[in-house]
Design brief:
- By secondary structure, this protein is of the alpha+beta class.
- The protein has helices at about 1-10, 15-25, 40-50, 70-80, 200-225, 245-255, 260-270, 315-320, 330, 335-345; strands at about 55-60, 85-95, 110-125, 130-135, 140, 145-155, 155-165, 170, 180-195, 235-240, 275-285, 285-295, 305-310.
- β4 (about 130-135) and β5 form a beta hairpin.
- α2 (about 15-25) crosses α3 (about 40-50) and α8 packs across α10 (about 335-345).
- It is globular.
- The relative contact order is 0.11.
Length: about 350
Amino acid sequence: MFQKTGVLFHHGIPSPVEITRAATASDEDGSRSLPNDGLTPRQQANAIRSIGLEPFLIGMPESGIARKWDYLRAVTHAYSGLGLPILISLELQAVENPAAAPGEGHAPRTPRSLGFHAVTAVGHRLEAVEAGAVKDDGPRLTATRLSRIFVHDDQAGPFARLWFHNNHIQTALPPRDNGDVVVAEPRHVIVPLYHKIRIPFDNVYRAVSDFDSAYNSFVLFLQSRDVRCAGTPLEWTIRLESVQGLKERFLAEMPDAVSSVRAAMSRLLTRNMPKYLWCCRASNGGLPMAELLYDATGLVQGSFFYDAFARHKLMEGFSAAAESPQAPENIRRSPDCLAVLRAIRQQKV
């Protein structure tokens, strides 16, 4: 884990003994300096702070806010855009293997807890399937197409797989003696962040949700006037990127982009941009529609929107619709949405 952050943020790489010593240095409960039961979330956070990074703890929602499986996908996909190693805390459970169940009418055994376990996410796999929403009324996210997370697991080895199946996270751990398989329930995630990365994923997700809702209202507005439009729903890719990574991506995409998009990218390439940005890309059926940029080093209390540009003519119509008295109310009442549309209006598609 710290090998990767050492490359990203240029800190010294501690040995395993130094990590454990830093994690338990402030413990006053009489526990052993070499904890046999593993590290608590506080101890994990202490180890991250000892190398000069900020531990950002993200709890998994139990109900109401989002489906925990999709939320884990979204968070993992978002922060891995910067190449960050993501510490995932799991509760391991032994469940009856469906393939070994006696048959119809059999009541499966109650899952049995095997304790908690932490792994480090180092990669993932996306499937070519339709994207879904983290929340029922939220935007569709590319992250929901994530089928596997590749992790470093000190019990199963490097590049072990966690895969999503039937509302469970299947693990690479061997079956129990009675044939039960080992599955995992996500409990929390800890992301080691550079201290100037202040804007969390949830804030950016809410901003994208507002824009997506306003865009859907615009499409319905057009369809109510018999304007043929196939611009909904959008699929959003939300990822944390460094300014260097963003510029490299723009340079790679510019040769195949239309002139207006090339001009927008060129304008951004010559600006003094924040060191880290949230990059939110909208597409429809694989066709790029727009890109929204948020300053990851901004303040939550203020506006952290940075810039935006359209990749499709439909977005030009959307930005112009905000000035119409007949435009849906949720377009006009969102300051963040209006800021995005003003930025898009400055660009001619």
